[in-house]
Amino acid sequence: MLVRYRGLxxxxxxxxxxxxxxxxxxxxxxxxxxxxxxxxxxxxxxxxLRTGLSMGASQAIxxxxxxxxxxxxxxxxxxxxxxVVEVARAxxxxxxxxxxxxxxxxxxxxxxxxxxxxxxxxEKKLLLAKMYAALSAGGALIIVESLIDDDRSxxxxxxxxxxxxxxxxxxxxxxxxxxxxxxxxxxxxxxxRVEHLIGPDSMAIGFK
Length: 208
Hints:
Layout: E1 2-5, E2 8-11, H1 13-18, H2 28-37, H3 45-51, H4 57-64, E3 73-75, H5 82-90, E4 107-113, H6 121-134, E5 135-145, H7 156-168, H8 177-187, E6 190-196, E7 202-207
């Protein structure tokens, strides 16, 4: 981090490159995000290694949503997809589907974790309408994203994720909580609310 010479000290070349706020290569914001989001979870490293269970946003969703009011639940898109990939490898009779073209089974709760931001606006609206149609009466849709704050001044990670979607995928982008709520409302959802989870992640919840 620093070098000392004859009673003086200075930044190392690496520190000067990555931790100088005045340079475009500054990475301090990333470390601040990791500190606020991930540091406390490393306290559960032993439990995580033993169980393979995430200590992050998934746990927050389990705690904050009233799951006891519902009976059936479907995870649309399976977030990063790790679980379904491993299941499909072990059981070859299980095949994937297309949530744009295939019919969705009816359920009390549907969730999309870091899925909606993959698509352009028209595709987002199409998916929301399809989710609404698949829900049971009184059911809930949970959308988990790095939702950007409405004035676009706080959630730097969400803004960078949106830029990443723009670069990586045709038409993909992250949205604000207000934008997501408006699209959900147009699809028919009611009593829509946005709740912070951990770090840059929040969930938008709407009911049928």
